[in-house]
Write a structure and sequence with these properties.
19% helix, 7-stranded mixed beta sheet, single chain
């Protein structure tokens, strides 16, 4: 069973995200998605996806032949068999729109999945859920000036109401 969460964040929120990851994972390292060096050198082939694991689990990464419609099929990380998760950072594009980011974990490694679920639970406490778009929002985004990619419009009315004491 996989788990994913989508979010909007500003660049300055990167440190907060890193700190939350560090609270639950030991010594995270980036894993090459492609086994072949030729593909590793050209990260544009994978867009913005960062595949992460703990340093102590690097030797448990499994690569499989990818599905291809031609005779050349590179070996890629097997997301289910490997203790990894994917991180797609949120960022501002050239039009100054905030592009949605994502965390996704598909591993069958139960211990790693437990860590990921604890990480997600803490992440949800730090960010604001926007039910209308089923996404989370960094609390430091100024909604009065923010533009989101794809015509997404988030206003104060879309946010959960604060409970009065």
């Amino acid at each position: 069973m996989g788990k994913q969460i989508r979010f909007y964040a500003e660049k300055k929120c990167g440190e907060t995200i890193k700190n939350i990851m560090d609270n639950f994972f030991d010594d995270l390292v980036v894993i090459p998605f492609y086994k072949e060096k030729a593909f590793q050198d050209n990260e544009e082939t994978r867009s913005r996806i960062i595949t992460l694991t703990e340093k102590k689990l690097e030797n448990e990464i499994v690569y499989v032949k990818s599905v291809s419609y031609d005779e050349f099929a590179p070996e890629v990380v097997h997301s289910f068999a490997s203790p990894t998760f994917n991180y797609v950072p949120s960022f501002r594009n050239l039009e100054n729109e905030i592009v949605e980011g994502e965390f996704e974990c598909l591993t069958s490694n139960e211990e790693f999945m437990k860590k990921f679920l604890k990480f997600i639970a803490q992440f949800k406490k730090e960010f604001i859920y926007v039910r209308k778009y089923r996404t989370y929002l960094s609390p430091n985004i100024d909604l009065s000036t923010a533009k989101f990619q794809g015509g997404v419009v988030i206003t104060e009315a879309d946010l959960p109401q604060k409970k009065s004491k």
